[in-house]
């Protein structure tokens, strides 16, 4: 089934009369607050523009030229924005990566990306230092942010900016690019690399269309950036906030109630969050949620992981029709849906984005009929390749269409629905069981805080359905609770989908992007069926 872009141009109002592009915003509104740091320090657009210009000169002074790479190991901070803006006006690649990486992981990313400059938070120099030694990064090109004076063998990030011009070092500013590493569920992660153009800095028509489709407009709005900025979606929203003239409130790993407090205190308009954040907020007692005014929210955007239908319905009931959902991968965006779209077609992840085509293919690469499940493939709006891995690029594509390994279908009107990742599919007795469907039922139980469903080897059925459950505080993970959960599932699922094994854990392992780390879930394959299942 092929699905082209539907409703071209819908929702393209990005804010009447508002400036588009960081440079235009800084020139028109130099005094507007651009960033609010976690400690309350603010930075105006004019100040941020000047610092990004000085940083661009510093990078050029270190010998970097268009096409070179700058890597960064930072928590959510002002430095992330400065680096993205400086590289984005200098024709450089910017590669932020997790500040939770080990020395071996840092070594791989810095070496593989061929980064010529690496910026590291002061708290991480002991982890990063040996990696930069191994990668051959000299002291003058390993910058430490967040402490003064710098440790021995490092260069002070702030000191580089003190005497340099605020203009762009290139005669004609040139757009850079972000080169991110995929999560790497098997083997080492690979970088998604797109060719740089000679275009000037600023958002592309594709990025503007995507923002419009998820309810984000240009103007004097406030956006909360609390998800890890080195991930694709949070980083995109943070950068587009600067391009659209927003004030960004930076937060680093806030607790659930702190999200609400920040929204209330700063009158936040725009928020990106993974579904886990919404679920945890909804599980707060009503009197706790009632302490905070969240009526300022005009766009609550979620992605990165499936959102259980019950969670989404309750979130819309609570926040209003301000929820927007998108389906994307580091390799490119695919589709988007607003609250009205979803309520009319529960479960949809939307219509294809501008310049994006979707195909649903069977195992032999042939298109399937509308409503039939197959592999979800899409033609990226911006072509990419995996850095230094032509074979991986080729394996992920069919005739120019990429797949992230997800299964789904397209209805007669072109709306896309996801079932699950192909690698997560459970085949029990020859019948397909999609973990996301079972998880959506289990997470709706009031005593379940989090859940992951996997398949276990079974000599008779091939695989049997198993669930790892994180109980809500105060709920005992015992046989009686397992019986209640099995009965709950039987009321909503066919018998073959009901978990035969339920294991209770203190937490369900998830990535910082909110994705279940199924590879970390290890159940006893010899465990018998759960009582009552």
Supply database-style keywords:
Rossmann fold, 14-stranded mixed beta sheet, GMP Synthetase, Chain A, domain 3, 3 domains, globular, six-stranded parallel beta sheet, 25% strand, 16 helices, alpha/beta, 30 strands, 533 residues
Tell me what you see in this structure.
The protein is an alpha/beta fold. The chain has three domains: 138 residues, 3-Layer(aba) Sandwich (Rossmann fold), CATH 3.40.50.980; 201 residues, Rossmann fold (3-Layer(aba) Sandwich); 96 residues, 2-Layer Sandwich (GMP Synthetase, Chain A, domain 3), CATH 3.30.300.30. The protein has 16 helices and 30 strands. The strands form six sheets. The chain has a 14-stranded mixed sheet with strand order 1-19-20-24-25-18-17-16-15-14-12-13-2-3, with helices on both faces. A six-stranded parallel sheet has the order 8-7-6-4-5-9, sandwiched between helices. Helix 16 links the parallel strand 29 and strand 30. Helix 2 crosses helix 3.
Helix content: 25-40%
With helices defined by DSSP (H or I, 4 residues minimum), what is the helix count? 16
Order of strands across the main sheet: 1-19-20-24-25-18-17-16-15-14-12-13-2-3
Structural class designation? alpha/beta
- Uncertain stretches of 5 or more adjacent residues: 4-14, 522-529
Note the gap between the termini: 38 Å
Specify the biggest β-sheet: 14 strands, mixed
CATH class designation of the largest domain: Alpha Beta
């Amino acid at each position: 089934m092929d699905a082209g872009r539907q409703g071209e141009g819908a929702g393209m109002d990005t804010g009447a009369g508002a400036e588009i592009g960081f440079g235009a915003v800084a020139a028109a509104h130099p005094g507007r607050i651009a960033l609010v740091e976690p400690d309350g320090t603010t930075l105006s657009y004019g100040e941020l523009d000047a610092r990004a210009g000085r940083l661009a000169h510093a990078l050029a002074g270190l010998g970097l030229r268009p096409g070179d790479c700058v890597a960064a190991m930072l928590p959510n901070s002002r430095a992330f924005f400065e680096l993205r803006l400086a590289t984005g006006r200098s024709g450089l690649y910017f590669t932020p990566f997790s500040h939770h990486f080990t020395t071996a992981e840092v070594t791989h990313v810095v070496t593989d990306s061929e980064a010529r400059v690496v910026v590291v938070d002061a708290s991480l120099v002991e982890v990063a230092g040996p990696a930069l030694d191994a990668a051959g990064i000299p002291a003058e090109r390993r910058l430490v942010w967040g402490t003064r004076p710098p440790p021995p063998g490092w260069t002070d990030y702030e000191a580089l900016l003190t005497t340099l011009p605020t203009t762009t070092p290139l005669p004609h500013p040139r757009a850079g690019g972000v080169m991110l590493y995929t999560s790497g569920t098997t083997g080492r992660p690979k970088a998604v690399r797109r060719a740089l153009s000679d275009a000037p800095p600023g958002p592309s028509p594709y990025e503007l269309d995507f923002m419009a489709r998820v309810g984000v407009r240009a103007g004097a709005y406030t956006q909360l950036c609390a998800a890890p900025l080195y991930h694709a979606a949070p980083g995109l929203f943070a950068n587009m906030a600067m391009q659209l003239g927003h004030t960004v409130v930076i937060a680093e790993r806030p607790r659930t109630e702190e999200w609400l407090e920040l929204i209330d205190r700063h009158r936040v308009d725009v928020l990106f969050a993974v579904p886990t954040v919404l679920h945890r907020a909804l599980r707060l007692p009503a009197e706790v949620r009632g302490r905070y005014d969240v009526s300022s929210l005009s766009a609550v955007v979620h992605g990165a992981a499936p959102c259980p239908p019950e969670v989404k319905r309750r979130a819309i009931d609570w926040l209003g029709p301000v929820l927007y959902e998108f389906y994307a991968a580091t390799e490119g965006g695919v589709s988007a849906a607003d609250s009205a779209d979803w309520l009319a077609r529960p479960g949809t992840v939307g219509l294809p984005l501008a310049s994006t085509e979707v195909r649903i293919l069977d195992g032999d690469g042939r298109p399937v009929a509308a409503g039939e499940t197959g592999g979800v493939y899409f033609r990226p709006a911006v072509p990419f390749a995996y850095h230094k891995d032509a074979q991986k690029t080729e394996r992920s594509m069919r005739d120019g269409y990429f797949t992230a390994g997800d299964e789904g279908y397209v209805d007669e009107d072109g709306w896309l629905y996801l079932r699950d990742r192909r690698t997560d599919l459970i085949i029990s007795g020859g019948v397909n069981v999609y973990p996301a469907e079972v998880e959506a039922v289990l997470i709706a139980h009031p005593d379940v805080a989090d859940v992951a469903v996997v398949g276990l080897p079974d000599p008779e059925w091939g695989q049997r359905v198993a669930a790892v459950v994180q109980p809500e505080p105060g709920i005992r993970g015992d046989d009686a609770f397992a019986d209640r959960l099995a009965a709950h599932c039987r009321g909503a699922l066919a018998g073959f989908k009901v978990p035969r094994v339920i294991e209770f854990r203190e937490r369900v392992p998830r990535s910082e992007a909110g994705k279940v780390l199924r590879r970390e879930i290890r159940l006893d394959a010899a465990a018998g069926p759960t009582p009552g299942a």
